[in-house]
Design a protein that fits this description.
The complex is a heterodimer of chains A (344) and B (152). With 344 residues, chain A is α+β, with helices and mostly antiparallel strands. Chain A is built from ten helices and 18 strands. In chain A, the strands form three sheets. In chain A, strands 8, 9, 10, 11, 12, 13, 16, 17 and 18 form a nine-stranded mixed β-sheet that branches. A seven-stranded mixed β-sheet of chain A has the order 3-1-2-4-7-6-5, sandwiched between helices. In chain A, strands 14-15 form a two-stranded antiparallel ribbon. Chain B is an alpha+beta fold and 152 residues long. Chain B has one domain. In chain B, the strands form three sheets. In chain B, strands 2-3-4-6 form a four-stranded antiparallel β-sheet. Classes of the chains: A alpha+beta (344), B alpha+beta (152).
Chain lengths: 344, 152
C-alpha cells in the first residue's frame, strides 16, 4: 500500500509540474546538493528564503536530493486522498504502517502539509493545500523532516541546537525549548559573532566534527525583542497569530556574519536562572548527550537510535559546559568568545 | 527474582551508549532516557557480559568491603528496575561467558540508581486527531497550534 500511494503521489506531482511549469532552485547543504523543483512560483519564496545563503548551481550529475513541491490552490492538482484513517496519525506527524525503512511519510496538521521521501532514490515530495496557509515555522525551517531523512542516508545528523562561533570554530547550544538557545545565539549574532543557527543545524560526516548551517532564521518571543530593540526593524512577521514567534531572516541583515560551516569546539548547555551571574562550568559528555539527543529525536519523524549514536560521536569529541544565564556578569557572547579563544 | 537469571539488552527497542563513568540507555518505544553511574555502570556491564544476578552480587561482594547483604539488596533492586522499565529481558540460561567481566574495586559500595529522563517522552505527547475534512485530511482543533516544532 505504501508503494502504491507513493506512485500515485508522484503522478500527481508530475501533473502539477506539467500544469504550472517548473521552477528549479539548487542548494548546497552540508557539502551535498539538493534540488527543489517547484510546480509554479507559489511556494518558491516561502520555502527558500531561509536557505538563500546556501543557493548554488547544479554542476554535472544528479543532485543528492530531489524534491518536487506543489500546492493545490495554485496548480489545481490535489494530493491523492489518504488511504489511512484518522486514527493512524501518531506522534511526530508519523502515519502508522506507512514507513518501511525506505519510504517515509509525515503530516503536519497546521498548514495541511504532507511530505514523502524515498531513501533509495533520495527523492521526495512536498504538498500543501494552499501556499498562503503555510505556517511561519514552516517558512522558517522548511522541509525539515525530508532533510532529516535524506541526511541520515548521507552520514549527516540534523541537530536541534543553536550554533555560533568565530573564525576558529563554533559552539553548539543544546537543550529543549525555553532553555535559552535562541536568545543566546541571536545575542551572539548581534554582538558580532558568526551565526550558523538558533535551533537547528547539521552535524557533518567529518572527523573531527563540523557543524553546517541549514537555515539562517532566528526566532524569539516578544520579551526577547524588548531586550534587543536593535532587531525591531528586521522582524519578518509583524502580524502574528496564535503562539507564533517573531521570525528573522538574518542573512538579509547580517550577511557577513552568516557562516555556512565551522569546526565544532564545544557543546554548551544553556539554562536561564533568575539570579546570579552568567558563567560556564564543566559538564559531562552525558550531560551534552542528554541535552542534544532527546529533543533532536522528538522533532524528527521516525528518528531513533541513530540519533543517539551520531550525537555520541560528537559529544565524545569536544568538551561540554553548562552555560548558566543569569542577570549579572558578562553577556553570554563574551563568555562564548572567551571560551572559544581558550579551546585548542 | 531468580538469582540465576541472565539478561540481555531489550534490543532493538532499547539502545545504549557507554561513557567513561556513565551509561545512557534509551527505550525508543517510550522515549525515556536512563542513566546509570558508578557501580551502576559495572552492574550494567556485568549484565551485558552475560553474568547472572548471583554472579554480579558475588563479584561486587568480592570487590567491595562491607555489608554483603546491602550489596545484594542494591544489585537485585537495580536489576528489577531495569527489567520493570523493559530495558533488559531475560536471556537463555546458557548465555555468553561472563569470565571477562569484573567490577572495579573500591572502598565503598554505592548503591546503583537508575536516573530517568522524560524530556523526549514529554515532547512526543501529541493531541489526538479528532476530525478529518471531506478529502480525509485532519483538521486542527486549534488552527494556531501545530505539532511540536522548532521554535514553537
Amino acid at each position: 500500500m505504501i508503494q502504491r500511494y507513493f506512485a500515485d503521489a508522484e503522478a500527481a506531482a508530475e501533473r502539477a509540474l506539467a500544469t504550472a511549469g517548473r521552477v528549479d532552485r539548487v542548494f548546497s547543504i552540508a557539502g551535498l546538493s539538493a534540488r527543489f523543483s517547484f510546480c509554479g512560483p507559489a511556494l518558491v519564496s516561502a520555502l527558500t528564503r531561509a536557505m538563500t545563503h546556501l543557493s548554488t548551481t547544479l554542476g554535472d550529475g544528479e543532485p543528492s536530493l530531489t524534491l518536487t513541491l506543489w500546492d493545490s490552490r495554485s496548480t489545481g492538482v490535489d494530493m491523492p486522498p489518504p488511504p489511512w484513517s484518522a486514527d493512524d496519525y501518531i506522534r511526530r506527524g508519523e502515519i502508522r504502517d506507512f514507513h518501511d525503512g525506505v519510504h517515509y511519510i509525515a503530516f503536519s496538521i497546521r498548514g495541511t502539509i504532507l511530505v514523502l521521501f524515498n531513501a533509495e532514490t533520495r527523492r521526495g515530495l512536498f504538498w500543501t493545500r494552499d501556499a498562503d496557509g503555510l505556517p511561519i515555522y514552516e517558512r522558517a525551517a522548511p522541509c525539515r523532516a525530508q532533510f532529516g531523512w535524506w541526511l541520515a542516508t548521507q552520514g549527516r545528523q540534523p541537530l536541534h541546537a543553536g550554533a555560533v562561533g568565530d573564525s576558529s570554530g563554533c559552539v553548539l547550544l543544546a537543550g529543549r525549548g525555553g532553555s535559552g538557545k535562541s536568545g543566546t545565539a541571536i545575542g551572539a549574532l548581534v554582538a558580532g559573532l558568526q551565526y550558523l543557527s538558533d535551533d537547528y543545524c547539521i552535524l557533518g560526516a567529518e572527523t573531527p566534527p563540523v557543524i553546517h548551517s541549514l537555515y539562517t532564521t532566528g526566532k524569539m518571543l516578544e520579551d526577547g525583542l524588548k531586550r534587543t530593540p536593535v532587531l525591531v526593524p528586521y522582524v519578518s512577521n509583524p502580524q502574528r497569530s496564535g503562539d507564533d514567534k517573531i521570525v528573522f531572516f538574518f542573512h538579509e541583515h547580517f550577511p557577513t556574519q552568516i557562516a555556512r560551516s565551522a569546526p565544532l569546539k564545544a557543546v554548551l548547555i544553556p539554562r536561564i536562572v533568575p539570579s546570579g551571574d552568567t558563567e560556564i562550568s564543566r559538564a559531562t559528555a552525558t550531560d551534552a548527550l542528554l541535552a542534544l539527543a532527546p529533543s533532536t529525536t522528538s522533532l524528527m519523524p521516525y528518528a531513533g537510535g541513530e540519533v543517539l549514536r551520531n550525537v555520541t560521536r560528537a559529544v565524545r569529541s569536544v568538551p561540554a559546559f553548562h552555560l548558566t544565564l543569569g542577570p549579572g556578569g558578562p553577556p553570554p557572547s563574551d563568555v562564548i568568545r572567551s571560551l572559544l579563544s581558550s579551546l585548542p | 527474582m531468580n538469582r540465576s537469571a541472565r539478561f540481555r539488552l531489550n534490543a532493538p527497542r532499547v539502545i545504549h551508549e557507554l561513557f567513561e563513568h556513565e551509561v545512557v540507555v534509551v527505550n525508543l518505544d517510550t522515549g525515556r532516557y536512563y542513566c546509570l553511574q558508578s557501580s551502576g555502570v559495572d552492574l550494567w556491564n556485568g549484565l551485558m557480559a552475560g553474568a547472572s544476578v548471583e554472579e554480579i552480587v558475588r563479584a561486587f561482594q568480592t570487590a567491595y568491603p562491607g555489608d554483603g547483604a546491602e550489596i545484594e539488596t542494591g544489585v537485585v533492586a537495580t536489576v528489577a528496575d531495569l527489567a520493570r522499565e523493559e530495558l533488559i529481558a531475560e536471556a537463555p540460561t546458557l548465555g555468553p561467558s561472563a569470565e571477562a567481566w569484573q567490577p572495579r574495586s573500591g572502598t565503598t559500595f554505592e548503591r546503583p540508581t537508575l536516573q530517568t529522563y522524560t524530556d523526549m517522552q514529554d515532547l512526543l505527547l501529541l493531541d489526538p486527531i479528532h476530525e478529518v475534512d471531506e478529502a480525509g485530511w485532519p483538521i486542527a482543533a486549534d488552527p494556531t497550534k501545530g505539532p511540536a516544532d522548532i521554535g514553537r
